[in-house]
Amino acid sequence: MKTYRDHYFKKAKQDNYPARSVYKLEEIDKPLRLLVPGAAVLDLGACPGSWTLYAAGRVGQTGRVLAVDLNEAGVAFPGNVTYLTGDMLDPGPDIRDAFARLGPFDVVLSDMAPKTTGVKFTDQARSLELCEAALGVALARLTPGGAFVVKIFQGPDAPAFQKGLRAYFDKVRVVKPKSSRAESKEIFYVATGFRPSAAELPEPDPPPLPAGGGPATNG
Asked: Which tens digits make up the pLDDT trace of 196-215?
């Protein structure tokens, strides 16, 4: 297994990417052609920059990539990339302005992950929180027909999150890239065919109260 991991580590260095995680995105992107020339891409959880560099290369100079992370990436990006630091759980005015100025986006990517504690259920819950934050941005900023790629730690709440994606997207795939470590609990949901009208549906009206005006009760 160590040899397998070293292969991707060495390949990333040879290809001038700061991390091996780039090959996860490549495996997701190539069969579906999510990242195409001229596309606008939002990359959440972008540090150390491998996904951003890959996306920038795929969309070309006619496209654009907005990348956001808590930390500076520490690498040089091409001119079609805007990189901002900030917390997606509490985005500041600079990030919100960039969303409005550089969006809408054809693809929203989220490789965000919490700092792991070693407590499985805590890590899963924090991963879900980041996924929900990413989805909120995607619903507000995706173009019709757009795509959403999000990393989540497998846990009891993950299937419900996947089911919720189907309300807004035509197709939702579950992907475990070959370049992911076998022991890793991460998977990716790849949602395509965004339907903005579904995101804008109003909340349903509550059921009418029974005669007498009080809440309905059993028995």
From this structure: 988 775 444 444 444 433 33
Active site residue 13: no
- From the candidates 10, 115, 151, 163, which is the catalytic residue? 151
How many domains does the chain fold into? 1
What are the CA-CA distances from residue 32 to residues 26, 107, 144, 190, 192 (Å)?
10, 12, 17, 10, 9
Give the domain extent around 125: 21-197
Give me Rg for the CA atoms of the chain: 19
The domain that holds 171 is classified in CATH as 3.40.50.150
Q: Is residue 190 part of a domain?
A: yes
pLDDT tens profile 91-122: 999 999 999 999 999 999 999 999 989 899 99
> Does residue 7 belong to any structural domain of this protein?
no
Residue 76 phi/psi, 5-degree rounding, is -85, 135
> What pTM does this model have?
0.87
